[in-house]
Amino acid sequence: MQLFNNSEFKAMQKAMDMLWLKQKVISNNIANAETPGYKAKSVSFKNVLSSEYYRRHPEMVDELEPVVTVDNSTSIRVDGNNVDLDKESLELWRTYAQYSYLRERMSGQFKNMRYVLNNL
Amino acid sequence: MSFLNSLNIAGSALTAERFRMNIIAQNIANQNVTRTEDGGPYRRKQVVFQERRLDFKSVLKGKQTQVSGQGGVRVSEVVESDEPFRMTYDPTHPDANEDGYVLLPNVDTSEEMVDFMAASRAYEANITALNIVKAMAMQALEIGK
């Protein structure tokens, strides 16, 4: 059905899924802040979304997959761990804010739909 | 369920840090113990953390991108320190050797206290993370309201 299956809905759904994954990876980094040899992981999807392919086919948003990368280049502790707690918690708050914003947008869409349906 | 899984990540760290604090308390409590079951003075114990990988089944089931970094942390082992024991001169001590020296545990209280503070700060960081995750989950429940 076109009403629910439009690309805006799909995009928001995908973005929320990705933010959820990001939140999990950040939690994992914070959980491993004291683990020797652990390297911080990060999720990127901004680059994926702005890729040329997606710009040409916005309806293909379902196929996008987030990328989890490991930062092996640095160590901020002697035991090889490179989790920066400040950075991670800031990133977690950012994820939360983005998630809230998307939630708001999605609710707005549903509100519009409800309005239309009630006034037929 | 994925919602419960993400709480487990921070939860695993809370368990691990609490375990670490228990071991530190154990070290401090035993800093003057000269008799143990294995004989000899108490040895300082240290906790070793390890990243917890997802189990094989969930790796097989999940997508490639979701394999890394969602398992949390676990305590892999508790090792006993090989540092030399402290030697003090106390001929009246029942465990003193012929020369009057007593071997005391290799526990350094200030080192333990620093470790304890690090553990409790890590615990707090995970509590904060847990609260944000919880708030995010509540947000998800409000979609459509």
Task: Please specify the SSE layout and strand pairing.
The complex is a heterodimer of chains A (120) and B (145).
Chain A: H1 7-31, E1 41-44, H2 46-49, H3 52-56, E2 67-70, H4 85-118
Antiparallel strand pairs in A: 1-2
Helix pairs in contact in A: 1-4
Chain B: H1 2-29, E1 45-51, H2 56-61, E2 73-80, E3 86-89, E4 101-104, H3 109-141
Antiparallel strand pairs in B: 1-2, 3-4
Helix pairs in contact in B: 1-3
Number of helices of chain A: 4
Approximately what portion of the residues of chain B adopt beta-strand conformation? 15-25%
Show unreliable segments of chain A.
none
Class derived from helix and strand content of chain B: alpha+beta
Shape of chain B: elongated
Give the overall shape of chain A: elongated
Which range best describes the helical content of chain B: under 10%, 10-25%, 25-40%, 40-55%, 55-70% or over 70%? Answer: 40-55%
Instruction: Report Rg of chain A.
Output: 18 Å
Instruction: Quickly give the structural class of chain A.
Output: mainly alpha
Element-level helix/strand string of chain A: HEHHEH
Number of strands of chain A: 2
Q: How would you characterize the overall build of this protein?
A:
The complex is a heterodimer of chains A (120) and B (145). Chain A is mostly helical and 120 residues long. Chain A contains 4 helices and 2 strands, in the order αβααβα. Chain A has helices at 7-31, 46-49, 52-56, 85-118, and strands at 41-44, 67-70. By secondary structure, chain B is of the alpha+beta class. Chain B has one domain (3-143). Helix content of chain B is 46%, strand content 16%. Chain B has helices at residues 2-29, 56-61, 109-141, and strands spanning 45-51, 73-80, 86-89, 101-104. Classes of the chains: A mainly alpha (120), B alpha+beta (145). At the A-B interface, helix 1, strand 2 and helix 4 of A face helix 1, strand 1 and helix 3 of B.
Summarize the structure.
The complex is a heterodimer of chains A (120) and B (145). Helices cover 57% and strands 7% of the residues of chain A.
